[in-house]
Amino acid sequence: MNTAGAVRWLKGEMPAAEGAFAWLHFNLANASTERWLRDHLGEVDAFFDALHEGSRSTRIEFAHDALIAVVNDVLFEFDFEPSQIATLWMCVDQRTVVTTRLQPLRSIDRLRAAVKGGEAFETPVALLTHLLRDQADVLVQIVRAATGRVDDVEDSLLAERVQRSRAKLGALRRVLVRLRRLLAPEPGALFRLLNQPPAWVAPDDVQELRHSTEEFSAVLADMTALQERIKLLQEEIAARVTEETNRSVYVLTMVTVLALPINMIAGLLGMNVGGIPLAEHHAGFWIVVAIIASFTVVAGWLAFRRRED
Fold this sequence. Notes:
- This protein is α+β, with helices and mostly antiparallel strands.
- The protein has 2 domains: 3-242, Methane Monooxygenase Hydroxylase, Chain G, domain 1 (Up-down Bundle), CATH 1.20.58.340; 248-269 and 279-308.
- The protein is 63% helix and 11% strand.
- A 5-stranded mixed beta sheet has the order 1-5-4-3-2, with helices on both faces.
- A hairpin with a 2-residue loop joins strand 2 (59-63) and strand 3 (66-74).
- 21% of the residues are buried.
- Pfam families: CorA.
- One of its GO terms (molecular function) is magnesium ion transmembrane transporter activity.
- This is Magnesium transporter CorA.
- Its main location: membrane.
């Protein structure tokens, strides 16, 4: 359908079979897209307000006899970067599904491929449900990939490569936290929609939408469990780093204690004053060495005895 056909469809001038609907997908990167939508989509203020509001958490609301959905998704080339999460806005009514995005998204691309492959949808809500399930599938793949990365970090932790593991875990946890915060549907809006759906939404579509949200919740639960696992690994790494730091401080302390008698006696004997003991004695050097060794052995014994206690 070209632009002229889309205008005719939105105005209701294009004949269509009973139950037929159109899916119109737009790229907001084009500056004229929003202006065209305002001119032809109709009075759907909630949809245009959602395009410009600061909060972009995933939700589905009913307004102006249409479903307004804000769906967060990952970019097509997602590589576990927080900046690779973008938003898809949807306006769904009885005859039309309008989707808009700023960047290519993975779930919407899968939905487009399914439509081109010949998959049919009986209602607009069925298409929305399919999109939510595609998003859940993408999220499952992300969780699996993240689990693989956590497994690698755990293996590197066992191999004592702690510093690199800390950086990887921290970055991965930040991505998962942002994914969960943005992708988790708002329970209040979804609860109201499922309990008081629009009159034009079939009961079967409401049930399918409920099932898709339950699947989504299960994936989010897996993501939460993975975050807890990452947190435990970070605590284990922090404990190991603290233990290594304490060991290094202990070694430095021991070196200082053992070197203290040598430094004190060397400082005293090195003074340029008269009366230095054993200065004229033929075995003075070895006597001083014996004294230093005795003090060092006593200091070491005291230090290691306290360590054992």
